[in-house]
Amino acid sequence: MGRYVVRRLLQMIPVFIGATLLIFLMVNVMGDPIAGLCGDRQCDPATAAQLEKEFGLDKPVWQQYLTYMGNVFTGDFGTAFNGQEVTELMASAFPVTIRLTIVAILFEIVIGITLGVITGLRRGRPVDTGVLLITLVVISVPTFVTGLLLQLLLGVEWGWIKPSVSTDATFGELIVPGLVLASVSLAYVTRLTRTSIAENRRSDYVRTAVAKGLPRRRVITKHLLRNSLIPVVTFIGTDIGALMGGAIVTERIFNIHGVGYQLYQGILRQNTQTVVGFVTVLVLVFLVANLLVDLLYAVLDPRIRYA
Amino acid sequence: MRGATHAKWTACAVAVALAATACGGGDDDGGSGGDTSAVLSASWGDPQNPLEPANTNEVQGGKVLDMVFRGLKRYNPETGAAEDMLAESIETSDSQNFTIKIKDWTFSNGEKVTADSFVNAWNYGASLKNNQKNAYFFSYIEGYDQVHPEDGSKQTADTLSGLKVVDEKTFTVKLNQKFSTFPETLGYSAYAPLPQEFFDDHSAWLSKPVGNGPYTIQSYAKGSQMSLRAWEDYPGEDKAQNGGVDLKVYTDNNTAYTDLLAGNLDLVDDVPASQLANVQADLGDRYLNTPAGIIQTLAFPYYDEKWDQPDSDKVRTGLSRAIDRKQITETIFQKTRTPATDWTSPVLGEEGGFEEGFCGDACEYDPDEAKKLIEEGGGLPGGQVKITYNADTGSHKDWVDAVCNSINNALDNEKACVGNPVGTFADFRNQITDLKMSGPFRAGWQMDYPLIQNFLQPLYYTNASSNDGKWSNKEFDDLVDQANAEADTAKAVDLFKQAEAVVRDNMAAIPLWYQNGSAGYSERLSNVKLNPFSVPVYNEIKVG
Asked: Where in chain B is the domain with CATH 3.10.105.10?
C-alpha cells in the first residue's frame, strides 16, 4: 500500500515536469508580453529592455524555464506585472475556488447520486423518464445560459440573491454559482449512477443479499450502491480538477475572483508568471485527485488491492 | 481487509491536508468600513501596473490617482481647460525656462508639499532604473538623455539637470527645446508630487498609497476592492461631496451592470456594448453619454512599399469615403460614438483646435467617388485590404466587420476587405512594434491632456512614440516644431491646425469616430458627471 503510493508519487514527477514545460512553452510562443504594457503606444525601448531584463525575458527559453522551476521549488512563483507576488494572487484566488468546488461537488454527490439511485431502481417508470429528460436539457444548455438566466431571475427579477459574489465569497453566496457550475456534471453523475445501479441490480451478490432476507435499505446502500460507485467516483475525481480550472465562465458571470478569473486575466495580459504558476498548481491538484480516486477504489471494492 | 482500512486512512489524511491548506488564509479582509451612509460603490477594473503616478497609463489606475492626487494643474471636469491647482504661478519668458511657485498644501499624512516633493517625484519618474512606463513625459526636460538613455546603456545621472529647487516653495524647469504649452501638460497624473514615504518605504506606500488629493485610501485589497474616504482636512477647494467611494473590481462589465440594476452598486462607468440597446429603458435619465477625448482611426503601414506609393493617398481617401460612419455609429454603437470629421476630439473645443468638418469631403460617405479614387490610385494593394485588430477587448470585431461590409458594398466586391483578428492585445501590439502589419490596422488614441498637440505629435511626428504606421512628413514635422516654439497659444493652435491639414491632405490615417464615455448610476446618486477622460468626477457626486 505505502509502496504503491510512493510509486504513484514518483510517477507524478515526469508528468509534472512535462506539463509545466508545455505550458511554459505555449505561453512563450504568444510573444513578447512587454508590448501590451504600454497601452496603444510603443514602450520606449530603454524601459522595455529594462523590464525584459527584470522579468528574465532576455534569456533563452530553456534558461527561463530552469530558473523558473528552480524558484518554484523554493516557493517563489515570481511576480505578476502589477507588482503582486503570484503566491499572493494564489492565496486570494484558491480558497475562493476551492469553496466553489466544494459546493459544486456536494451538489453532484448529494443530488446526482440520489437521483441516480432513484432512477436506477425505477427504470422505465415515469420518474426515470422525467429525470432523464431533465438531465438531457441540462447537458445541452451551455453553462453561461443557465448562469445568466439564474442571475437575472433570482438576482434582479425576484431579488432572492445578490447577482454578484462579494470579495469574501462565503459558502452562502456560492450556492447558486456552485449549482450552475455543477449542473452539467450533476446530470452526468445522475446518468452514470443510474446505469451502474441498473446493471448491478441484477448481479448475483444482490440477489443473494435479497435472498438472505436483508432489509432493502441495507441491500441498496451496502451492497448495490457501494459497488456501483466506482465509475462515479472516477468521474467526480477528475471533475475536481476540471471544476477548479474550468470555472472561468461561471466565475466571470458571478464576479468570483477565483482561479479561472486570474487565469483569464493572466492570459489576456500575457503574464507568463501568473499563468504558469496557476497551471502548475492545477496540475498538482489533478495528480493528487487522481491518486485519491485510485485509493478510493480499494475502499469501495475490497477485491481491489494495491501491493 | 487490511489494505482497505489503510487506503481509507491515507485518503482521508490527504483530503484533510488539502482542505486545511485550502481553508487557511482565505478570510484576510472582512467587509468594508461601517460608514455606509454617504459612501458610494463604483465598478472598477484591476489596474495593470503598480499604482505609481509615473507608471499608470491606463484608465483604471488613473481613476484612483485622480482621487488621491492633485498636481500643479487640473483639467476642468467640464471644459477640459488646465487650471491652477497646486501651482501658485508658472512663469516663463522664453517658452523654455519655467519658474514654478506652489501653494501651501499638505499630504494626507501631514507632510508638507514642497518643491522637493515635485522634483523628487519627477526625477523618480524619469530615471530608467525605476521602470516607469510614463517616463517619456519627462523627455522634454533637460538632462533626460542622461537619466534615461534611449539606447538602454547605463544611465549617467540619477537626477534631471533641468530641475532646480530654489526654495521650499519654488523650483525651476529647463526644457531641452521650446515648448510653449508645457504648463498645460502638467495636469497629467505622471507629474503628481510624492511624499517622502514613497521613497523611504516603497512597498508600504504601494500597498496603501498616500497622496494629496480629496480622498485617502482606507483599505486596499489588491485585485478586489479599494475603499477611499473623503479627507476631512483637504486643503483644496474641490473637496469631496460624499463620504467616500468603494471601488469594486468586477470580473465582467456585464456583471457590474446587472449589479447596478439589482441595486447592489451605485455607479458603472463602462456600460457593456451588449446592453446599450436597453440602457435607456433600464436607467432612463440615470444614463450618461458624453464626449471623451478618444478618437478611433485606421492607421496604415508606411514601412510596407505597397502602401507607400505616390498615389496611395488616393486609395486611402477612397477607403475613407467607402465607410458609412453614420450608419455604423448608430446601429453598432447606439450613438455612443460620433462620426469623426477631423483628427482631434470635440472635447478640445473650437479654441483648442477642434473643427467640425475639417476633414471635408474625404470623410463623407460616397460609394461612387470611393470607387473612382481607389481606381485612380492604382486599386487596392494586392486586391484586398485586411484590417487588423485585437479581438479580446471592446467590440472591435463588430465594427471592423461593419467597416469591411461598408467597403465591400461600396466597391461592389465581396472580397475587397476582410477583418484580421489577433487574439490578444499584447500580441497585437507585438506585431505592430515588429512592423508586421500588411494593411490598415485599428488605432485608438486616448488623450493624455486636452491639447491639440497631444492628438498630433505622438501619432504623426516622425518616429514618435505612437506613430505605429511610421508615417513621416517633413512639412508636418516642421509645423509641429514651429507650433511648440510659439509662445502665443492661439497662434500655436493655428500652426497645429496647419499641421493637421497636412495629415488631412495625405490621409495619413482614416479618422473613424469620436468615442463617448458612458456611465449609469443608481437612484441614490446625483450630480454625476464624466470628465473629458471618460472618468467619473467622483468628488462632485452627491449621495442620498
From this structure: 289-516
Report if residue A234 sits inside a domain. Answer: yes
**Alpha helix (H) ranges present in B113-201?**
115-126, 144-147, 182-185, 196-200
Residues of B in contact with A264 (CB under 8 A): 251
Instruction: Name the domain count of chain A.
Output: 1
B26·A251 Cβ contact <8 A: no
Q: Which residues of A touch B224 (CB under 8 A)?
A: 92, 167, 257
The correct CATH number of B53-62+69-208 out of 3.30.450.40, 3.90.76.10, 3.10.25.10, 3.40.50.300 is: 3.90.76.10
| Residue A135 distance to chain B (closest CA, Å) | 27
- Kind and range of the H or E run holding B390: strand B385-390
pTM equals 0.82
As a whole number of angstroms, the distance between CA B439 and CA A119 comes to 61
Rounded Cα–Cα distance for residues A298 and A281 (Å): 27
SS3 B277: coil
* B61's grid cell: 489606475
Identify whether A17 is part of a domain. no
ipTM summary value: 0.81
Residues of chain A contacting residue B49, judged by C-beta atoms under 8 Å apart? 37, 81-83
CB-closest option in A49, A88, A261 to B251: A261
Locate CATH 3.90.76.10 in chain B.
53-62+69-208
Count the residues in chain B: 544
Each residue's pLDDT, cut to its tens digit, for chain B (544 residues) gives 344 444 434 333 333 333 333 333 333 333 333 344 589 999 998 888 889 999 888 888 989 999 999 999 999 988 888 899 999 999 998 889 999 999 999 999 999 999 999 999 999 999 988 888 888 889 889 999 899 888 777 888 889 999 999 999 999 999 998 888 899 899 999 999 999 999 999 989 998 999 999 999 999 988 889 999 999 899 988 999 999 999 999 888 888 999 999 888 999 988 887 888 888 888 989 999 988 999 999 999 999 988 888 888 899 999 999 999 999 999 888 888 999 999 999 999 888 899 999 999 999 999 999 999 999 988 888 888 999 998 877 678 889 999 999 999 999 988 899 999 988 887 888 888 888 898 999 998 888 888 899 999 989 999 888 888 999 999 999 999 999 888 888 899 999 999 999 999 999 999 999 999 889 999 999 899 999 888 999 999 999 8
CA distance B376 to chain A (A): 33
The pairing of strands B509-521 and B287-299 is antiparallel
DSSP state of B157: -
Q: Where are the beta strands (DSSP E) in chain A?
A: none
- Give the separation between CA B196 and CA A16, rounded to whole angstroms: 46
The C-alpha cell at B156 is: 549617467
CATH code where residue A247 lies? 1.10.3720.10
Tell me which residue has cell 514602450. A43
CATH of domain B289-516: 3.10.105.10
Nearest neighbour of A40 by CB, restricted to B131, B255, B466: B466
Residue B52 C-alpha, separation from nearest chain A C-alpha, in angstroms = 11
Is A103 part of any domain? yes
Which residues in chain A have their CB less than 8 angstroms from residue B392's CB? 268
Residue A245: which domain range? 93-258
Residue A122 lies in a domain: yes
Q: What is the largest CA-CA distance in chain A?
A: 84
Compare all CA atoms of chain B with the CA of A260 and give the residue at the minimum distance: B251
